[in-house]
Amino acid sequence: MPPTPDKAPAVAIEERLFSLVLALIATEIGLTKSDILSTVQGYRQRYVLGGDNASLERQFERDKDDIRDLGIPLETIDSDDEPGSNHHLRYRIPKGLYDLPADVSFSADELMLLKLAGTVWREGSLSAESRRALTKLNSLGVDSNDPILGYAPSLRARDAAFEPLSKALDRGQSVAFLYLKPGEPSPRRRQVIPRAIVLHEGRWHLSATDLAADANRTFLLSRITGPVKTLPGATAAGVPGAAQAALEDLDRLWGANSAVVEVRAGSDAALRLGKRDVTETESENLLTLHFTDLNILADELAGYGPEVMVQTPLELRQAVRTRLIGVRDAHSVSTGTEPPNTEPGSAPTTTRGSVNS
C-alpha cells in the first residue's frame, strides 16, 4: 500500500526542482498546475486528489521563482478556451531556449569524459547528482548504456560531512561540527559560516569563516567527526567567487611547500611519486614533491616504509618517523616482543605545510 500524503517520504528540494525542470522540458503543450502537483516527483507524494493542496500550491509558486532565479526560462501558456484562468494555465520550458548555444559542442571523447565524471559521482554520496548529470548528457544524445571501456576512476565522495555542508551552503546556514586537528588528543567544536566546498588534490575541503576566530579557515572534510548541525537563526549570504578564491589559496599553499625525498630505485614509491616530481635533479632517486598538508603527506610516505627517506623538511621527516615507530610498537605489542630501545621522534606541529584547521 503506498504511503499516505502525510507519511510520504521526504524528497530533497534539489530533486524536486530537477524533476520539475525535466517535466517542463519534456512537454510540448505545457502542464497545468494540477498535472504538475499530481505527477512530478516531490509533489505527487503529498498531492491529495480532490482535497486541500494549498500548501503544495504555495510550494510550487516558490519553486517557480527558484527556477527563474537559476536562469531557466519558464513560459506560461493561456488556455484558448478560458484565457486568464489560472486553473487552465500551462507551464513549460521551451527546449530551444534551454539547449546549449549553437557554437557549443562536445566531441565524442569529451562526452565520454563527462559521462565518466558522472559515473565517479554515482559511486559516492552524490548519486542523485550523478543521475541528473547523466540525464542531461542523454538529452545531448549520449546513450546511458554506452560502454566505458572497462575503466572507472576511483575518486569517491564518501565524506559524511559533504551532503549536510552542501545543503547548509545552499541555504546560507551556519553550522557546527567536531573537528579533529592533527596532534590534538580530541576533536574541538567549530562554529563556521560555509563559503565553498572544493576538491583539491583529490580531497574535499570546506572554506569557511570561523565564528570564534572571526577569520577564514580551510577544513578537510575527512577530519570532521560526528554530525554537522545547523545553528538556529544563524544565516549568511553566499559569497560570489568563494570557490575560486578557495582553490587559489590552496594552490598557493601547494606551491609554497615542498619536500625532498629519496626513493629506492625501481620501487613502487619511485614509480608513483616520480609522477609528481616537479624538478630535475642530478640523482634520479631524489624527488621534489609539493604538498598542502604535511600530515597527509606523512601518512602517504610512511605507507612506503623503507622505500622512502625524507630529506627535508625536518618536520615531515619527524612526522614520518613517528608514524613508522608507532607501527613498529603496535606490532611488538601484538607479537609480545620488546621493541628496540629507541625514542620516537617528536610529534609534528602545525606548520605552514598543513591545511589551516
What is the topology?
Blueprint: H1 13-26, E1 31-32, H2 33-39, H3 54-69, E2 75-77, E3 90-92, H4 95-98, H5 108-122, H6 127-139, H7 162-171, E4 173-179, E5 188-200, E6 203-210, E7 215-220, E8 224-235, H8 242-256, E9 258-263, H9 268-274, E10 286-290, H10 294-302, E11 308-312, H11 314-335
Antiparallel strand pairs: 1-3, 2-3, 4-5, 4-8, 5-6, 6-7, 9-10, 9-11
Helix pairs in contact: 5-6, 10-11
Note down, in words, how this protein is organized.
With 357 residues, the chain is α+β, with helices and mostly antiparallel strands. It folds into 4 domains: 5-98, Orthogonal Bundle (Arc Repressor Mutant, subunit A), CATH 1.10.10; 102-157, no CATH class; 162-250, SH3 type barrels; 257-335, no CATH class. The chain is built from 11 helices and 11 strands. The chain has helices at residues 13-26, 33-39, 54-69, 95-98, 108-122, 127-139, 162-171, 242-256, 268-274, 294-302, 314-335; strands at residues 31-32, 75-77, 90-92, 173-179, 188-200, 203-210, 215-220, 224-235, 258-263, 286-290, 308-312. Strands 7-6-5-4-8 form a 5-stranded antiparallel beta sheet. The protein has a 3-stranded antiparallel beta sheet with strand order 1-3-2. The longest helix is centred in the last third of the chain and has 22 residues, at 314-335. This is WYL domain-containing protein. Residues 261-324 form the WCX domain. InterPro entries: CBASS_pafABC_assoc_protein (IPR051534), WCX_dom (IPR057727), WYL_dom (IPR026881).
